[in-house]
Design brief:
Strand order of the largest sheet of chain B: 4-3-2-1-5
Strand order of the largest sheet of chain A: 1-2-4-3
Largest interface: A-B, 14 and 13 residues
Largest sheet of chain B: 5 strands, parallel
Order of helices and strands of chain A: HEHEHEE
Distance between the termini of chain A: 17 Å
Radius of gyration of chain B: 14 Å
Helix content of chain B: 25-40%
Structural class of chain B: alpha/beta
Shape of chain B: globular
CATH superfamily of chain B: DsrEFH-like
CATH superfamily of chain A: TusA-like domain
CATH architecture of chain B: 3-Layer(aba) Sandwich
CATH class of chain B: Alpha Beta
Number of helices of chain A: 3
Largest sheet of chain A: 4 strands, mixed
Number of strands of chain B: 5
Oligomer: heterodimer
Helix content of chain A: 25-40%
CATH architecture of chain A: 2-Layer Sandwich
Chain lengths: ~80, ~140
């Protein structure tokens, strides 16, 4: 998906994990994904470089669809659809 | 469900944090985890000591720097890492009876709530044999 398409998504759950370092954002994502239904969209906000690689891999491994990552000023937004 | 066994034989803060980070990753991956508290790690799990653990295992000169960095990064305490992992996956903490005795404790009420039971080394070996991933710290 393009950055524009990702930014235009209707997000069902937003997790702001910018205040935590690895593994904080991954744990926050793991907790939050349990609160939405299959097919719903979640975004994770993080400023941690390790998380940027971890969450897409984790999502794919757990059967969710990684949609893409958008960079913002000083952090990034990772989008996924729950499987 | 993949299985992980962790043998933990240290009561130093840097290695307890390392253990906590690894356990968090395993929990995010839905692994079934068994932590065995061995030999010198018993001290860290005592009710009257757990929250005050601050000794470093190595590079003692950087101790203050290390603690300041953890604070700056809002890193959870080692106990909080363990608690989060337990909350997210099937994880048990076993105290090896020798580790308990070395720490001067042999009853469940001597240990923090993270602890599930007191066991012998045979359970650790059995868990190691049944696990997909084995980590010793």
């Amino acid at each position: 998906m393009t950055n524009e398409e990702l930014q235009a998504l209707n997000v069902d759950k937003s997790v702001d994990a910018r205040g935590t370092a690895c593994p904080g954002p991954l744990l926050a994502a793991k907790k939050a994904i349990g609160e939405i239904n299959s097919g719903q969209i979640m975004e994770v906000l993080s400023a941690d470089e390790g998380t940027r690689k971890d969450i897409p891999k984790w999502a794919a491994k757990k059967g969710h669809e990684y949609l893409g990552t958008v960079e913002d000023s000083g952090y990034f937004k990772i989008y996924m659809k729950k499987g | 469900m993949a299985k992980m066994t962790m043998g933990l034989s240290t009561s130093s803060i840097d290695k307890l944090i390392s253990a906590g980070v690894i356990l968090s990753g395993a929990a995010a991956d839905d692994m079934e985890v068994n932590v065995f508290v061995l030999v010198n790690a018993g001290h860290a799990f005592l009710k009257n000591k757990a929250a005050d653990i601050s000794n470093m295992s190595e590079d003692i000169q950087t101790s203050e720097e290390f603690k300041a960095s953890l604070e700056k990064l809002s890193t959870p305490s080692w106990i909080e890492f363990f608690e989060m992992a337990k909350e997210l996956t099937e994880m048990k903490v076993h105290i090896c009876s020798l580790a308990g005795k070395i720490a001067g404790a042999d009853k469940m009420e001597d240990f923090i709530d993270l602890v599930d039971d007191i066991c012998g080394i045979g359970e650790y070996i059995e868990s190691v044999q049944e696990s997909d991933v084995n980590i010793f710290i």
